[in-house]
Amino acid sequence: MKLKLTLAAAFVATLALSACGSSDNSPVQVAPLPPPAVVTNDPAAFASKDTVLGTGAEAALGKAINVHYTGWLYDSTKPDNKGTQFESTVGKAPVAFMLTKGTLIEGWTDGIPGMKAGGKRTLTIPSSKGYGTSGRGPVPANTGMVFEIELISVN
């Protein structure tokens, strides 16, 4: 009797499992995964965009200026290309310096002149106008940067 019940149970289980299968013999189609996002850490070109137009004195090469700034590593997958923030003076005293070539990265000497005090500008700087193939501090080699700069004053 036990053998008949075991055979009957096996037969019912086989019928139930075969009923769950597909009616055709085609293989199951699985959608391919999307390719991973390609991260670019160096913009192709320098870009400058005013976000607030100032009304005060105009910055020019050779002048002393005071600024607030925040710098991010360039990351093409992030909003506004702002990857990891590496430095900021916001909430601290403004930074004072002479706007001169040779003492600042080229992206700043190209991007700050023409700003007026009270203005804000976003600079997207390729590594060739930043720290290049060497990198510096928290900025790796061949990595672009994004800076938000607020020109406080021109002296």
Automatic annotation (TrEMBL):
PROSITE patterns: FKBP_PPIASE, PROKAR_LIPOPROTEIN. Pfam families: FKBP_C. Residues 62-155 form the PPIase FKBP-type domain. The keyword Glycoprotein does not apply. InterPro entries: PPIase_dom_sf, PPIase_FKBP_dom. One of its GO terms (molecular function) is isomerase activity. Residues 1-18 form the signal peptide. Keywords: Isomerase, Rotamase, Signal. Its EC number is 5.2.1.8. It catalyses: [protein]-peptidylproline (omega=180) = [protein]-peptidylproline (omega=0). It is an enzyme of class 5 (isomerase). Belongs to the FKBP-type PPIase family. This is Peptidyl-prolyl cis-trans isomerase. It comes from Massilia violaceinigra.
